[in-house]
Amino acid sequence: MNSYLGIDFGTSGARAIVIEKEQKIVSEVFDNYNDLALKNWSYRWEKALFSLIEQIPTEIRRNLKAIAINGTSSTVLLCDGKGKPIDNPIWYNDDRGAEILETLKAIAPPNHVVLSPTSSLGKLLWWYRRPVYSQASYFLHQADWLASLLHGKLGISDYHNALKLGYDVEKLCYPDWIEKLPLRAILPQVLAPGTPVGEVKKEISDRYFLPRDCLVCTGTTDSIAAFLASGVQKPGDAVTSLGSTLVLKLLSHKRVEDAKYGIYSHRLGDLWLTGGASNTGGAVLRKYFSDRELVNLSQQIEANTESPLDYYPLLNKGERFPINDPQLSPRLEPIPNNSVQFLHGLLESMARIEAKGYQLLQQLGATPLRQVYTAGGGAQNSAWRIIRQRNLKVPVLKSTQTAAAYGSALLALRSLREPLRDARGEKTP
Description:
By secondary structure, the chain is an alpha/beta fold. The protein is built from 13 helices and 17 strands.
């Protein structure tokens, strides 16, 4: 039975999921980045990659037809001509690019998504000023580099990872202002996510019992892979991730961008995935309640009745979406003596923020909201779902699948509809 492998590289570990043609999971394995004392992250990722493949039962490995990998957005590596990292990778949340932000502002258009200390381009410009840059031949994202270990082709990325590198995802090319940069020579060729790049290398095939014709595809970012896992396909469908923060993603016919609110759009074929992130979310809830208390108290909430408490639940000062105010202070008073009422007020207030977020996306031109799928730890809270549905005024559903590795497996499955590409992105016969 043919099968398809998706691999997710997160901050604390990696996960692999294998699905068959009907999208049923047939294997799921984990690697928690052993050897935590090591500082060599690229070595740990490489070790985890092959550990995951080796853990998959041999009979399933023998039938793998395609592989796709996702990584954390803007986690990047600088590599030599053979693809070997010449410095430690820079993680997605590393803000060392802050020191070159003024230079970046002079290069990129106003309000561009790259104008952030943590953008891929910001990190590359930081490296450009270091002696190690003279040894560089390739600048790759985490998912790009890991895929190259399997197919052996260097300098290939996808337009989800390349968005924060400055790639124009609408015109599908690097813009003129990037083409003029002296570091243009080491930037990757950019293809659509899920595009077949090449077959697994012979030594990989022989060692891990993979078919010689198993294709390795361009990948995506972890957040996009998680969105794909939800099964959303129609414009107007959305996914809200109820994690430590509140992240909204809406599938739209129209591209929506507004740097003031941190809103930008990823391309999904002929559609756009637009969204924003609020600083409210589960981290605030855990400041006041344990996991057990959240479960027990939520069961006592009259979810169909609106709470009169009006909070803006934040851990610290500052909000960007759906309100842009870096000085916005948390509003968490009055706190009633009744814990059920307090939790109800928090959940109600977060639901109002979520509703305002989707309203803002639609005001900026996104496709009207049809229904919302839910991912993250908060997806288990049925009272919160009812409260959110009442505020959103559309159906609120729990995502059947939420793992980013599952989304990458779907990308691998769909890749077989695309032509095989060579290292330059050209179709092969």
